[in-house]
Backbone:
């Protein structure tokens, strides 16, 4: 199983439903067995939710992704069943199917297109430089997640949205509580460890969502009083066809941005740093390429970091009719989880998948989804954030090593490192 995360392969029979499983890393050996012997397998949940089918191979993930009429997002995209009428009021765009989703997406997609996002590159680069220089000024031994990776994505997204920099830490903390909803360190109400029944009608069963709705309401009010040229104002304005995002749609979209655009990029940055530390020759090569090859190697390195980290471990679909996938008898109403992280280590798609290779090409990873109408809206922003971070960081450091135990998020949904102590030398 080659060089990867030596010793991190886990047992071949881990419970993939149990958030505790992921505290010691992604159970690669288990998913390798599933892809080989039982690619569409039935699981009962350790968390007490209804069971589900686990789709673990790359090509099967695409089969599910490209059929939203058969595998629907409209009944929720996470393992938890959200009950009650409120679900429909609080749905975000991930939880719509075409054609409603198509309309929604048309209304919000423009500011996230590559060209639009790159208009913010300088602002984002200055932020990255400031954060990296600050971390190095305070010492050469630090927690990379806390001092670097956590500081950037929310503030970078904040620059686009036009929210005050000073609100950054609060947004990060609320976003963490939302997505770290199984982790006692991230929220006062970890699902499965405390009684979260009173929150069962809100996204992620997390009261943090309510705070974020209120914040979004306030931001919308401010823009209506005094429109600006930031992304929030653009999202609220009608299109040339007179179509407009409703108030509720805007609030739900805002909460989705804070949850989707915060820790995903953070954990990918951390996964990338760890991989580069573990492959010093590739770190050196990447550093030497900066400013000399038109960003070619950085571009393929970012894609490999995305594949390697594949932070969103799964999303859920719900079958709307009886069907069959690789012989598995899926019934209407069954939950079907597509495991992005597993698909990105599928040897039928990625030769030698456990080898980290910044030159890997082609690299059609599914870290942002693929062939799905829900393909990550923030993909161009995320790619730029990761690129800019390493362009600013690598020339400022010499050697780098891991400098203490790594702590991982307790979640079967998002794979991330909460702490990664590093020691670096200054360049
Ligand atoms: C490395 C960072 C990121 C990763 C790994 C990631 C991953 C994903 C994945 C897997 C999906 C669902 C794809 C599917 O169901 O087929 C998604 C959707 C989405 N992402 Fe990201 N994402 C990242 C960063 C961002 C950022 C920075 C933003 C904010 C601008 C964002 C906003 C969204 C939105 C709004 C959707 C829903 C799109 C829709 O339903 O049409 N993501 N992302």
Residues:
């Amino acid at each position: 199983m080659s060089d990867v995360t030596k010793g991190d392969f886990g047992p071949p029979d881990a419970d993939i439903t149990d958030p505790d499983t992921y505290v010691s890393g992604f159970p690669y050996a288990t998913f390798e067995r599933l892809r080989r012997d039982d690619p569409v397998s039935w699981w009962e949940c350790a968390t007490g939710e209804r069971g589900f089918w686990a789709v673990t191979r790359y090509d099967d993930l695409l089969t599910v992704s490209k059929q939203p009429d058969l595998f629907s997002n409209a009944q929720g995209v996470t393992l938890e069943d959200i009950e009650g009428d409120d679900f429909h009021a609080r749905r975000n765009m991930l939880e719509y199917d075409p054609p409603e989703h198509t309309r929604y997406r048309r209304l919000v997609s423009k500011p996230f297109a590559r060209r639009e996002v790159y208009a913010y590159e300088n602002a984002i680069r200055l932020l990255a430089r400031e954060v990296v220089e600050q971390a190095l000024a305070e010492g050469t031994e630090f927690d990379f997640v806390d001092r670097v990776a956590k500081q950037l994505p929310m503030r970078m997204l904040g620059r686009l949205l036009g929210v005050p920099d000073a609100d950054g830490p609060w947004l990060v903390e609320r976003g963490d509580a939302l997505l770290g909803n199984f982790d006692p360190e991230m929220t006062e109400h970890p699902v499965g460890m405390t009684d979260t029944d009173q929150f069962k009608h809100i996204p992620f069963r997390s009261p943090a969502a309510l705070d974020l709705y209120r914040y979004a309401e306030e931001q919308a009010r401010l823009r209506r009083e005094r429109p600006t040229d930031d992304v929030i104002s653009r999202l609220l304005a009608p299109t040339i066809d007179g179509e407009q995002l409703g108030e509720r749609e805007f609030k739900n979209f805002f909460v989705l941005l804070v949850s989707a655009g915060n820790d995903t990029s953070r954990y990918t940055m951390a996964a990338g740093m760890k991989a580069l530390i573990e492959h010093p020759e590739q770190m050196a090569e990447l550093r030497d390429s900066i400013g000399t090859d038109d960003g070619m190697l950085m571009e393929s390195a970012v894609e490999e970091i995305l594949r390697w980290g594949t932070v969103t471990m799964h999303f859920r679909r719900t079958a709307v009719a009886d069907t069959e996938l690789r012989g598995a008898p899926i019934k209407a109403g069954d939950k079907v989880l597509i495991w992005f992280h597993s698909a990105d280590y599928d040897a039928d798609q990625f030769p030698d998948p456990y080898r980290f290779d910044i030159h890997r090409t082609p690299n059609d990873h599914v870290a942002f989804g693929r062939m799905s109408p829900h393909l990550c809206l923030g993909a161009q922003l995320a790619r730029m954030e990761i690129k800019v971070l390493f362009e600013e960081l690598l020339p400022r450091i010499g050697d780098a090593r891991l400098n203490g135990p790594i702590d991982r998020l307790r979640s079967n949904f998002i794979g991330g490192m909460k702490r990664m102590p590093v020691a670096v030398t200054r360049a």
Remarks:
- The chain has a mean pLDDT of 91.
- The first helix runs from residue 28 to 37.
- DSSP finds 17 helices and twelve strands in the chain.
- The CA atoms of residues 180 and 230 lie 29 Å apart.
